[in-house]
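seq as requested:
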Amino acid sequence: MPTRGKNPRDEFAHHEMESRSRFDQHKNQKGGNKMKRRIETSEIPIGIAASALGAVVDTIDLQRFKPNIQPGGCCSKPAQDGMDSHAKEQAVNSQTEEPTLAATWHTVAGSPITDEFLEWPADLFALTDVILERSEAYRFVLSPSSGLEWPPSRFPNWSEAVEEAGRQWSVWVEDRHGSIPHLLVEEWSVFRERAGMPLGHLAEGLDSRMCEALLTLHAIADEACAGLGMVLDRSGGKGCIYRAHGRELLARTGSLARIASHFLRVLPKVRTPPDRTSFRSFSRYACVHGPGVEAWWHKVPTRRRGTEPGARHANLLLLPWPLRVRESDFRPLKGSVHRLAKEPFGFFEFVPSEMLDLELVDRMIVAARDEVDSVDGVLLPESAVEDSDINGLEALLDRHGVIMLITGVRQRTPQPGRLPGNWVHIGISPRLEKGGSLPRSTGEQWFHIHQNKHHPWSLDEKQILQYHLGGALHPHIRWWETMEVPRRTVHFVEHGDEITLVSLVCEDLGQTDSVAEVIRSVGPTVVLTPLLDGPQLNSRWAARYASVLADDPGSAVLTLTSFGMVQRSRPHGRDSSPVVALWKDPVRGPREIRLETGSQGVLLTLCGNRATRRSADGRCPVDNATEYFDVAVHQVRASNAGSGLLNSRLEMLAPRVLEVDELTMLTGWAQAVAEALAYAPECVEPLLADARAGAPWRAALRIAEPSPQLSEAIRFMSRAVRAVTPTGREPTLDALHIPCRKGRPDEHGLEALVRRVLRSMIEQVRTRQA
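struct tokens:
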């Protein structure tokens, strides 16, 4: 972060605590040296700021420290071996040779513990989260021992104290002319003083004051991360510039922290589990996960117009296609069978003969719109379409005002030397508005997000007999799906109506791997899972794994399979079942969704409502989360007549004006503009200055400058705000909302997109104010 006023190290110095742990006493008795404090600063000595600790002490001599900022990460390797002399002293306790807290952190993140953690809340959250998880000291909240009281009795209200400290810290990060929170500095001094403590001492609860400081710092950092993902109500709107920086950092690096993402990532948290005691339950706005899984956060500001409760609903058209799957659609790969003598295995591919029928899609949407005001999204199962079908399908949906497509995609013609891919395609219309009048096409290509499948399907004898595939695939051979297995990546998609989606493909739902752990930590609002599977009965495997996510972290889960596969699933002695989908949420439980005779699809309507966000560390619950639940199911039979759109040639859409990562960054800045206009209009001009290319904070965080197209979009946004700003006065949210609703006939494609993004974010803020 750039320095705006005081540096954290100018407000932090050695603070001798009255209470000493058993470890400290033992170390002093053995003649151990008192732990040194190092405060990185400029060339001149500094003293404690009275505003920070409420007292003035003598100026202390400091050793200069030149941090080496790693790209996308916080400082590391101040010395050649990656640890300064103070960190080395803290690395291993000289009496026990046990790893210390400092050594534990250095092993995880490759950097020492310095006062730079006070510069960026997500960094401190990562540090405290790692130490709490490795030591399991969080358990003392649930089972206090060794003199620890929880919440600490010295606070009249610990929950209010950490929430207020988190808010003040957010303000201080962007404007350091104020005071860093006293509670933050006090607890940090305790932690820094004891960073050389063996991890085992903390795990045994031998220092109650250290446990208290660690848990308090973790809670303060968590509160300071509020709003970096989903926009939340923030008192006074202060800290909106800091949150805008954090959102762009997240979009560019996949993490809220400055720590290099190959060490760990800090991600926003969306849902929190009710009445849980796992460590995941000890935060409500952020979570940490280690290397191995790439995570990316996308913002697409899709929502209905208006701020009334009716704006929080969505109509999804489920197309469980192919409607017929033949045995010959499963083809063994020639020459792929190995190890015939013992447990043979081979490879197969799924090539359905029933191709995507755009004429039927057209008639299905016409029929669905006869029931509801709009079709907001279309969902299809795993491998339902070929990659070459996407552009034509999106062009048709665009004509009908549909703004989202989620479908399983199979790749027929991979690059030479590579296996075919299997993924979920997530397409978002640049129109961004649900329920708009027709026709309102922008004529531009949709935004695309590509969620790969990570685990291939394995067909054993039981499944081959269940799906009656023995004529194509020998039942005594285990058949593996022929597909490229990519590196593990998960994409979270945050929508303007405060719903965060993640998609998993079939087998990925049933895995308890690191991807599943990331999803459970973040807690998306809805998990969408296209399948190539049998009936989605509440007694089958998909429902069991959906129950896990519905219970913890409280995500809703929708699974959708092909009706053709449902019809083929006839286990010995049983008839087929027409259940093609399953919706399960923590509010109303499971709903089996059938495809009735004569229907070709199902219309599912979802509603959203405020939900409670909790944490197991004793903070008071807050109602600032969102949950979605099912409210209606309608069978859809294709209309006799189509829309007529296919009578004329579907024009291919023009190139999109921004890529999805650029849209994410633009949306993050638009969120900050709306927040500033609503609560802190004096921050609008500094905010717009930081949004522009060349602002120094990006160089400080080592992130790239905006692309030319994104820079142009930011200029359009700034111009729109200044156009409604009276001379000598500050702009208002209502003044900007009026032109964003109406638009202009001569708008440039990019300018029109900026206006739609601003309108969506303004109405999101106004909905929260209502």
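The longest strand covers residues 622-636.
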